[in-house]
Amino acid sequence: MKSGLLAALSAALLAIGLATPAAAEPPADHGLGSQIRKHEGGPGVGRPVHTQPGVLATVSGIDVSGWQGNVDWNYWWGQGKRFAYVKATEGTSYRNPYFAQQYNGSYNVGMIRGAYHFALPNVSSGATQANYFASNGGGWSRDGKTLPGVVDMEYNPYGATCYGKTQAGMAAWIRDFSNTYRARTGRDVVIYTSTSWWSQCVGTAQAFAATNPLWVARYNTTVGTLPYNWGIWTFWQYTDSPLDQNLFNGAYDRLRALALG
């Protein structure tokens, strides 16, 4: 009986703004591929095998978010990682609290680095989120060590896989983000996704290969089939163990050329 009274009192206080739910969640921090792993499987195993025609050399790198906290960049440099992507923003209300340590720390140790944005297409327009990203760490400078920004397109962590959008609607949202980011920075945004998510949520509604580099997620020893209309990958996230690890499709001078634009 007492528990029922307490529950009723709590509900009444909540209704007038004097109490908060006991299960209130912390600010969102979804890393690259966090939802892809939930839907498509776990970390890759073994060393990636480059079976795709044209892959002659690669550069190894990592990506991080607020989950990693302060990163030991000297350690990862010693492990041969030469580039890093750092989460900057999500939607229009979240900024990575460790962004400065991660973004500047990777740069200071010698890595070529960039920033990424976890997209929530049901929250606001592509233009709104591109501007939020560009204004909060997602910018670009021609210093030879800053990569173009990334828009992370993957499964909705809060609900429907495709955020309630049709394939045409999702393609239009991505185009809006891409066009706005280019207007803000002068660079075409890199699109991070998986072939499975893209096939479900974008399909063949629009082709982006002519303008946007592809960062594909596939946790296996081979990259597999690429999303619609892309004939080649620029980055490949192949495992999340011990943290997200990636390859750049090309030699180091090509990675630097991408940074220089």
Q: Major sheet: size, sense and barrel closure?
A: 8 strands, mixed, barrel
CATH class: Alpha Beta
Question: What is the fold-level CATH name, i.e. the topology?
Answer: TIM Barrel
CATH H-tier superfamily: Glycosidases
Query: How many separate domains?
Result: 1
What is the gyration radius calculated from CA atoms?
A: 20 Å
Strand content: 15-25%
Count of individual helical segments? 8
- CATH architecture title: Alpha-Beta Barrel
Number of strands: 9
Describe it:
By secondary structure, the protein is an alpha/beta fold. It has one domain: Glycosidases (TIM Barrel, Alpha-Beta Barrel). Helix content is 32%, strand content 17%. It is built from eight helices and nine strands. It has an eight-stranded mixed β-barrel, surrounded by four helices. Helix 5 packs parallel to helix 6. It is globular. 41% of the residues are buried.
Give a short summary of the structure.
By secondary structure, this protein is of the alpha/beta class. 32% of the residues lie in helices and 17% in strands.
Features:
261 residues; alpha/beta; TIM Barrel; eight-stranded mixed beta barrel; 8 helices; 9 strands; globular; disordered N terminus
